[in-house]
Amino acid sequence: MRTRSAVRVVGPLHWVIYPSLICMAITVILGTPVRIFTLPLPEPVIPLCLAFAWPLIRPSMLGPLMLLLLGVFVDLYHNAPLGLTSVAALGVYGGVLAARPIIVGQEPRVLFAWWMGLITVAFLFDYLFMMLQTQVAPSIIAVILQFLPTAMLFPVAYWLYQRFDDGDVRFR
Q: pTM of this prediction?
């Protein structure tokens, strides 16, 4: 008697749409004016997790399109210049996509180094763009207070990569 082997088919709904909706919900939750022990909630740039994981999982045109839409949503929600988060997320996506042959299959330390390098470049770009647009240098402390929670999101990006990397064996 032959047994059936279960193939777990993971479509774009699972690895693009659901994480995007979760990203939007977390952005709204962390954007609420709640204070815990007189400290505001952190406001990491959550779409950068998706921008890091999606080109490692499966490069497609759906990822950059969704990052563009997520960036516009985050910019509108935080009243930031339109396109700021989109360009940063697409830059991270492009950086990972360019280095994909090098970093796929590497250990987490290597991926963490790429994560830190790419989000550092994204935050530097955002800082310079804001400085050029407003003609005033943004607060370094505010940038660092947004950079640190974003940097701590690496386990989320790595989990997303591990969760969906072998999700559909048809593409191997």
A: 0.86
The angle that helices 84-103 and 62-78 make with each other, rounded to 10 degrees, is 140
Query: Residue 14: which of 170, 165, 171 has the closest Cα?
Result: 165
Whole-number pLDDT of residue 172? 47
Helices (H), 58-167: 62-78, 84-103, 108-134, 140-151, 154-165
Place of tokens 């709204």: 28
Q: Scanning the structure block, which residue is given the tokens 């406001």?
A: 43
The SS3 assignment for 138 reads coil
Mean of the per-residue pLDDT values of the chain = 88
φ/ψ (deg, to 5) at 35: -120, 135
* Domain boundaries defined on the chain: 12-167
C-alpha–C-alpha distance, residues 94 and 109, integer Å: 20
Structure tokens at 89: 């997320």
Higher pLDDT, 170 or 36: 36
